[in-house]
Amino acid sequence: MTFSIVARDPETDAVGIAVQSKFVSVGSVVPFAAADAGAIATQSFANVAYGPDGLDLLREGHSASEVVEKLTDADDEAASRQVGVVGQDGSIAAFTGEECFDVADDIQGEHYTVQGNILENEETLPAMAETFETTEGGLPEKLIAALHAGNDAGGDSRGEQGAALYIVKPEGGYDGGNDRWVDVRVDDHERPIDELERVFKLYDVTLLAREEPEETRELDGETARAVTATLAELGFYDGEATETFSDDEREALEEFRGLNNFENHSLAVVEDALARGWDDAEGTGEEQMVDAIWHGLSRLDRK
């Protein structure tokens, strides 16, 4: 009841998995990754030992195809399993057991593999593959876009419930202390991929660093009025919203920035992001503020 994509970005050494399933807390079962090894998705009567055992095999120097062969040869129930593997060495492989429920298959391309079972149709996986290959942006955006494409093309025949995005890269974790660069899960939701994307944007703005912009814009005009009015609605500003964004308005924005743990970005960068991203933002209130900041930051490369 699951479709997933495992992929690598050779430019950043990031490798990870995105998955959706009619299964609660799918992120606790399917994705496994380590920056010194690669990434593995195990599904369809998942054998969760495939994760740590497969990563150990990758560390030992085995290719993805060798890992798949060793894992499945040692498993008496391999015929009901499905697994996708991408190694940090660039190797890629997948396995779909002959007893996996239809529609079940896997597709490999440069830097990725997609796999699914109990799918609505045979269009789901090709849609994921094509979208991953053609989407602009970093690995997180490409993986989320692939999930959306698979779901829109048919997806899990039993519906939606859980989704996860797990990406690792060397020293990518909080304050560089581990490799857990992106770790976002939606355990139970009627639209889990939409919710995964919303939470990822908040995660991105809060925890992921960007290159500093060469220049920043200040808020003015109708955008300044709209941002100030939103800050007032959220309780950060008690004056009248105007088309001027000056000291009092910036003090309110600074309070918003601090309360939401956006210290990864200076006040000037947050204001710049709002000025650039407000017209593209969706939602209302705090959700609109976060979405605008995310859109405004998206022009800057992640560190």
Give the secondary structure arrangement, pairings included:
Blueprint: E1 2-9, E2 14-21, E3 31-34, E4 38-43, H1 50-59, H2 64-73, E5 82-87, E6 92-96, E7 105-109, E8 112-117, H3 124-134, H4 139-153, E9 162-168, E10 180-186, H5 192-207, H6 221-233, H7 247-259, H8 267-277, H9 285-297
Antiparallel strand pairs: 1-2, 1-8, 2-9, 3-4, 4-5, 5-6, 7-8, 9-10
Helix pairs in contact: 1-2, 3-4, 5-9, 8-9
List keywords for this structure.
303 residues, alpha+beta, Glutamine Phosphoribosylpyrophosphate, subunit 1, domain 1, 6-stranded antiparallel beta sheet, 4-stranded antiparallel beta sheet, Putative peptidoglycan binding domain-containing protein, DUF1028, PG-bd_2, Ntn_hydrolases_N
Commentary on this structure:
The structure is a single chain. The chain has about 300 residues and is α+β, with helices and mostly antiparallel strands. It is built from 9 helices and 10 strands. The protein has helices at about 50-60, 65-75, 125-135, 140-155, 190-205, 220-235, 245-260, 265-275, 285-295, and strands at about 1-10, 15-20, 30-35, 40-45, 80-85, 90-95, 105-110, 110-115, 160-170, 180-185. Strand 7 (about 105-110) and strand 8 (about 110-115) form a beta hairpin. Helix 8 crosses helix 9. The longest helix has 16 residues, at about 190-205. The protein starts with a strand and ends in a 6-residue tail after the last helix.
